[in-house]
Every structure is written in structure tokens, then in C-alpha cells.
Design goal:
The chain is an alpha+beta fold. The chain contains 2 helices and 7 strands, in the order E-E-E-E-H-E-E-E-H. It has one domain. A hairpin with a 2-residue loop joins strand 3 and strand 4.
């Protein structure tokens, strides 16, 4: 199980050790990570890519865990993105 903190929309993954009160805990247990403010990370299944689509990662904090899910969205054509930049 991976543990992380969600900071400004980005994941900061836990290291294999935790520093606490001038001590170093090697190979921390689940409760050590939770006490240090980390949450378990749950990954949903990533969809298969389809032509003209791209995968967008969604990160949410739910039920004392960080959930990473994925959605397929249409890719913008190169011309559409250039037109938006000109407006």
C-alpha cells in the first residue's frame, strides 16, 4: 500500500522512513504513516486509450483515503487550440 499527502492538488508520497521526535522509523507501519498525516492511496483501473481521446487523472480525498481515478476526454485538435489562444 502506498501512502501520500494531497498538497495543493499534488501527491507527496511517503518515504520508506519517517522522522519523528528526533527518531527515525524505518519500514513504518500503516499507523505510523497515518499518525504522520499520510493517507492510503487507492488507484482505480485506468481505461484503455482510444483514438482521439486522452486520459485525465482525477485525485480526490474520500473516506480517509486518497482516490485516483481516470476519465477519457476528447483531445482538442491543433487548430482548435490555436484558435483559442488567438481569442
Amino acid at each position: 500500500m502506498l501512502y501520500a499527502k494531497l498538497i495543493n492538488g499534488f501527491l507527496k508520497y511517503a518515504k520508506y522512513y519517517i522522522k519523528k521526535n528526533d527518531k527515525v522509523i524505518l519500514n513504518p507501519q500503516e499507523q505510523d504513516y497515518i499518525n504522520a498525516g499520510y493517507l492510503p492511496v487507492k488507484y482505480e483501473q485506468m481505461p484503455l486509450i482510444q483514438e482521439g481521446m486522452r486520459i485525465v487523472e482525477n485525485i480526490t480525498c474520500e473516506d480517509e483515503q486518497i482516490k485516483i481515478s481516470y476519465t477519457l476526454v476528447e483531445e482538442e485538435s491543433h487548430e482548435e487550440s490555436q484558435e483559442e489562444n488567438l481569442n
